[in-house]
Amino acid sequence: MHMRTQIGIVGAGPAGLMLSHLLHLQGIESIIVENRGREYCENRVRAGVLEQGTADLLVESGVGERMQREGLIHHGIYLRFRGRDHHLNFPELTGGKSIMVYSQHDVVKDLIAARLKDGGQIFFDVKDVAVQDITSSAPRIRFQSAGESREIVCDYIAGCDGFHGICRPSIPAGVLRVFEKIYPFAWLGILAQVAPSCEELVYTRHERGFSLLSMRSPDTSRLYLQCDPSEDIEEWPDDRIWNELRLRTAADNGWALKEGPISQKGVTAMRSFLVEPMQYGRLFLMGDAAHIVPPTGAKGLNLAVADVRIFAQAVDLFYKQGRTDLLERYSEICLRRVWKVQRFSWWMTSMLHRSDEGEFSERVHLAELDYVTSSRAASTSLAENYVGLPFDPV
Q1: Into how many domains does the chain fold?
Q2: Of the listed 295, 330, 353, 365, which one is catalytic?
Q3: Is residue 295 annotated as part of the catalytic site, yes or no?
Q4: Residue 254 pLDDT > 90, yes or no?
Q5: How many CB atoms lie within 10 A of CB 325?
């Protein structure tokens, strides 16, 4: 079965769905193919911190109503080290900007609902996806759906299919330059059915390792512990997790960790990764298909939305004015932001985690935390990166 559309999108994660939604608002047709089921996409627990610009875009584009109702606006974070809390007030440091705590899977739910309501086409549970003829004027996406072979002929293809997707490997060898850093630690993450222990996120550096107190809702906590990447989750019963969290998050102000039933747990390895360029022929990579950041800076979803924003503007110019200059500069524009966000995520990760680099490194990172929390200039630098850098003019 043959279909024709303007933009073929591989992947129904935040990047692919947001792109399809923005294109629809611009009067541009798209079709999404996704190898997972709708239920999986809508329930996969991932990131939960939205930059000011990401939250604003959801509202401006008409898909932010539930987020505004249920999301939690945060005006800062706590950095905890040597048992003491240091609060960074984001609006005060950034001219009024803040962050929104709202789960990635909720963003996905809202976008899927909006696309289907607007008559958007999403093929879930597809198999054998392949992108072909990407250097021609009519690239194609081939796939199997409900046992039938299908093909979408497009003007352009958006690869929004994540780090393990098929789009990036479809680019010929030698075209992409890979930059990668594998970290010697991972995060053991849990979802606990208990109210958050603090009204804002708490990032803790401790001699036993990093920990993070986050949340997904007023009655659900998301908590993380630094661990070894080879750690077996089976060796972490609930009691051991809570005991380790108590030790690492201990504060000298009488604060107490709230504990409750753990509904999910898992170990996530950490890496920094990106490719240059983020485009080849008529295939454009977005989000995790092009870059991965360690989660310490809460940037993955936000960076994907920034890519999508640029690409949506570029194809709008192409269809309305016949201009291809912005499409040609897509990588160049996106990578300026990507490298700054890679820097910030690497810096936050290095500053807050224990490593095997020795006592000198340990003292330097503690001094860095001391400086960040005692200098307005340094606090401002962290805050403006955390709430989201301004979007580059295009």
Answers
A1: 1
A2: 295
A3: yes
A4: no
A5: 10
d(CA 233, CA 236): 5
Catalytic residue among 102, 156, 203, 280: 203
Domain span at 123: 2-74+98-179+271-353
Q: Are 264 and 45 in contact (CB under 8 A)?
A: yes
Q: Work out whether strand 262-276 and strand 177-192 pair parallel, antiparallel, or are unpaired.
A: antiparallel
Taking residues 260-284, report their average pLDDT: 96
**Can you tell me whether residue 60 is helix, strand or coil?**
helix
Catalytic residue among 21, 74, 97, 206: 74
Q: Which of the residues 78, 102, 183, 386 is marked catalytic?
A: 386
Active site residue 156: no
The β-bridge partners of 148 are 145
Q: Does residue 191 form part of some domain?
A: no
**Is 265 one of the annotated active-site residues of the chain?**
no
Q: How far apart are CA 267 and CA 133, in angstroms?
A: 38
Give yes or no for a contact between 83 and 253, defined as CB atoms under 8 angstroms apart.
no
Percent above pLDDT 70 for the chain: 99
Which DSSP state fits 26? T
